[in-house]
């Protein structure tokens, strides 16, 4: 017997279709039913590849006693945060206000009449453990509270909604030009500190911070940090660590240790796009470590093989867990990726195994539940012996050699994973939905790597994905966020607009002769401005005609696993100014920076992408030159430069460099042009 979620397009929602809980999707009918029946809403938000979301689905949400009580006393609603990041953002903020922590699954209790939360938590076990109450106890206590403590309930909700509304209002802030440069320095130093290696906790890529830290190295700021060294180390941690899949390519979400060894094994498209872009930028900045080029190439092969739809767009994610055999009841974390020592002994020659142990973290006891996650010990080029060994492991995992495996079919759910006759190991489930924002991050990464490494394949993959979005993601003239097997749905949110405009501008930067990327960026930006711009500056998360079910309308500025939409959007506005000479864009960028200035002063650790936007605003540089000359500049590290190809140059010159609203004297030689460009990039 299935519930309403069996009809959902979201893989995450469908995973709950056989729960005894009478789940609703978030919709007007569900909200109206809760009001009519005077039932508090139990809102549970998660995503397909979330490990603890999966655990709770198999435990508490599958428990008959819990379901009976839930169905009688609550209106249960399931939301995929990847479909509705606006809802997730609001209620995650409420959770953090109430508990001082965040994370998924996000389980929150709302009053039906106003959708204001009064209690929230993350994972709840069936029975009391881990210092957490049993879920049924929580449900019973909260229903009693809702029924009997009306006055306190109203007071509690009033405090919460006041806090949410206050946080949504941005204080005005202004600074002088001198303060701008100092503000940029403070933002750079804060981000560099954030990614400086530490000796405790999990290790996350945190690419918005690494991006700002790297671009700030060109200023030679006085600091207690060696910025270039810190940025290089982050690149090495990513490319050498267990967070990278050295056998099959692609980056996992994060590692559960400070040594970058044992990952949480899900692979998210948004991480991979950002990491590819960062490693390519690091290479262009002069850190030409072979492991970076290998990690990028391996990630692109993984993307092409496992994460690209026949139509050209990219899938969203792959789960951390997979089945070890078709008869297994539950999947195991990391099973697709790890190796027992006995396996390695059987598969590899003594020479290969010896070298693998010398260069990777391989021991008889393993480093993850008795098995081995591969982490490189040294940088540099891998030997042919090691490449052969890793190829053998690839063949065992996938059942065929990497040379002969063009595409590897996705297991779209657990049933497919268990019943398909896989030639190698049973793979993790792949969430095959298309998310514009995440595709855009991957397009940007591929475009950057294509320019730096002069790889046509990278540009081809990026262009196909971008063209799919341009040709398929509009319904009645409006941009859509998601695509499920050819069906576009859900109005685009600010991150979709901002990141896709950036992706189009990045494609333009890697291939300046193709003007259609810029033309499309302008059209998307026009819609973004019409429906999401705030007259106070910056962009709302959701459009003006799709915010009716939100208790507050946010203008998010904080960077998380993905960069903030407003930081990206403001930088885009500066880039569009350079490429179009339309100063209306610059006016919007200026107003956006003014709106967020107080946040940048008060909490620089929260918003590295806004500082990246400030860098673009202060140091924007347009280079006009011939195709040949521009192509020679594309692989260089020029973080605030835009390119325009022209044959109409002053006689005797090789190019023109323009700084914001003024142009320098024509460059009379390549050396002169480079000198002007480098100085223009640090004129703040």
Task: Characterise this structure.
This protein is an alpha+beta fold. It is built from 25 helices and 20 strands. The strands form six sheets. The chain has a five-stranded mixed beta sheet, with helices on both faces. Strands 13, 14, 15 and 16 form a four-stranded antiparallel beta sheet that branches. A four-stranded mixed beta sheet has the order 18-17-19-20, with helices on both faces. A hairpin with a 6-residue loop joins strand 4 and strand 5 (117-121). Residues 173-178 have low confidence and may be disordered.
Summarize the structure.
The chain is an alpha+beta fold and 684 residues long.
Radius of gyration, CA atoms, in whole angstroms = 26 Å
Number of helices: 25
Q: Determine the mean pLDDT.
A: 94
Tell me the helix content: 40-55%
Question: What overall geometry do the principal axes of the alpha carbons give?
Answer: globular
Number of distinct beta strands: 20
Distance between the termini: 65 Å
- Give the amount of beta strand, in percent: 5-15%
Sequence stretches where pLDDT stays below 50 over 5 or more residues: 173-178
SSE class: alpha+beta
């Amino acid at each position: 017997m299935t519930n309403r979620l069996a009809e959902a397009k979201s893989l995450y929602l469908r995973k709950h279709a056989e729960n005894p809980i009478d789940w609703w999707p978030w919709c007007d009918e569900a909200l109206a039913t809760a009001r009519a029946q005077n039932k508090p809403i139990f809102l549970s938000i998660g995503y397909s590849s979330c490990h603890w979301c999966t655990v709770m689905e198999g435990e508490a949400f599958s428990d008959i006693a819990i379901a009976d009580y839930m169905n009688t006393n609550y209106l249960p609603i399931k939301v995929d945060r990847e479909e509705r990041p606006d809802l997730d953002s609001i209620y995650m903020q409420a959770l953090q206000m109430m508990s001082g922590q965040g994370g998924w699954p996000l389980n929150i209790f709302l009053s039906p009449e106003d959708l204001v939360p009064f209690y929230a938590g993350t994972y709840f076990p069936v029975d009391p453990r881990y210092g957490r109450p049993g879920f049924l106890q929580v449900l019973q206590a909260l229903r009693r509270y809702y029924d009997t403590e009306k006055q306190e309930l109203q007071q509690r909700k009033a405090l919460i909604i006041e806090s949410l509304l206050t946080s949504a209002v941005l204080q005005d802030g202004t600074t002088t030009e001198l303060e701008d440069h100092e503000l940029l320095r403070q933002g750079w130093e804060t981000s560099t500190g954030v990614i400086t290696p530490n000796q405790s906790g999990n290790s996350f890529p945190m690419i918005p911070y690494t991006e700002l830290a790297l671009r700030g190295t060109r200023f030679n700021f006085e600091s207690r940090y060696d910025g270039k060294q810190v940025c290089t180390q982050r690149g090495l941690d990513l490319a050498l660590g267990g967070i990278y899949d050295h056998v099959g390519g692609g980056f996992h979400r994060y590692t559960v240790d400070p040594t970058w060894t044992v990952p949480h094994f899900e692979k998210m498209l948004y991480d991979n796009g950002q990491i590819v872009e960062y490693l390519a930028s690091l290479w262009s900045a002069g850190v030409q470590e072979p492991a970076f080029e290998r990690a990028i190439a391996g990630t692109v092969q993984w993307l092409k093989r496992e994460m690209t739809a026949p139509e050209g767009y990219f899938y969203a994610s792959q789960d951390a867990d997979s089945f070890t055999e078709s008869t297994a009841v539950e999947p195991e974390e990391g099973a697709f990726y790890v190796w027992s020592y006995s396996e390695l002994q059987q598969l590899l020659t003594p020479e290969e195994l010896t070298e693998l142990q010398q260069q990777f973290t391989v021991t008889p006891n393993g480093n993850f539940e008795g098995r081995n996650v591969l982490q490189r010990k040294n940088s540099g080029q891998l030997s042919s012996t090691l490449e052969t060994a890793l190829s053998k492991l690839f063949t065992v995992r996938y059942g065929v050699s990497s040379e002969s495996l063009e595409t590897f079919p996705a297991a779209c759910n657990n049933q497919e994973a268990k019943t398909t006759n896989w030639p190698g190991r049973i793979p993790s489930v792949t969430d095959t939905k298309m998310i514009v924002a995440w595709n855009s991050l991957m397009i940007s990464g591929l475009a950057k790597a294509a320019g730096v490494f002069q790889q046509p394949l990278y540009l081809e993959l990026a262009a196909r994905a971008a063209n799919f979005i341009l040709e398929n993601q509009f319904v009645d003239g409006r941009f859509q966020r998601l695509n499920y097997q050819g069906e576009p749905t859900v109005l685009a949110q600010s991150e979709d607009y901002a990141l896709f405009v950036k992706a189009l501008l990045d494609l333009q930067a890697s291939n300046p002769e193709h003007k259609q990327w810029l033309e499309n960026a302008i059209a998307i930006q026009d819609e973004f401005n019409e429906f999401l711009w705030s007259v106070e500056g910056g962009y709302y998360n959701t459009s003006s005609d799709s915010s009716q079910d939100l208790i507050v309308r946010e203008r998010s500025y904080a960077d998380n696993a993905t960069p903030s939409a407003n930081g990206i959007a403001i930088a885009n506005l500066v880039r569009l100014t350079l490429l179009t000479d339309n100063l209306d864009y610059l006016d919007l960028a200026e107003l956006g920076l003014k709106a967020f200035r107080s946040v940048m002063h008060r909490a620089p650790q929260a918003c590295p992408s806004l500082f990246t936007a400030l860098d673009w605003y202060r140091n924007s540089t347009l280079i006009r030159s011939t195709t040949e000359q521009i192509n020679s500049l594309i692989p260089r590290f020029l973080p605030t430069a835009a390119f325009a190809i022209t044959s109409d140059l002053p006689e005797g010159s090789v190019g023109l460099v323009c700084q914001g609203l003024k142009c320098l004297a024509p460059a009379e030689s390549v050396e002169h042009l480079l000198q002007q460009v480098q100085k223009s990039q640090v004129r703040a």
